[in-house]
Amino acid sequence: MGIVFNQNASTGGTDIIAKIINKFFHIDIGKSLLLSDFLITLAAGLTFGPKIGMYALLGVVINGLVIDNVIQGLNVCKQVTIISEKSEEIKKYIIEELGRGVTIYDGRGAYTGERRKF
């Protein structure tokens, strides 16, 4: 479900209510799903007994937390900073061989005052 929500899609059911809560109140989608499923879980607890209701509530809470953690894990970005005397060679390798983008910063060493590219 986390992968589906990360693509801004829905599996239907209470997910649609969760998406509406997420859109208008800017609450994480997992917590929105927890809110929408909580009422159903309360009704299940009243209908089938408190023991089953507590298990259902536990499942809903775990589901909501896992969804938020999966979405956070999928949206991780990585950055690498390389400081080297061979910046042109490294830049060429990254662009041509790895097919990734490169940003070059001009800087000055605090200790030596030397100008460097990184």
UniProtKB/TrEMBL annotation:
Keywords: Cell membrane, Membrane, Transmembrane, Transmembrane helix
Subcellular location: Cell membrane
Pfam family, one: YitT_membrane
GO CC field: plasma membrane
InterPro entries: N-reg_PII/ATP_PRibTrfase_C, UPF0750_membrane, YitT
Main location: membrane
Sections of the chain in a coiled coil: none
Membrane-topology annotation of the record: Multi-pass membrane protein
Name of this chain's protein: Uncharacterized protein
Native source species: Thermobrachium celere DSM 8682
Phylogenetic lineage: Bacteria, Bacillati, Bacillota, Clostridia, Eubacteriales
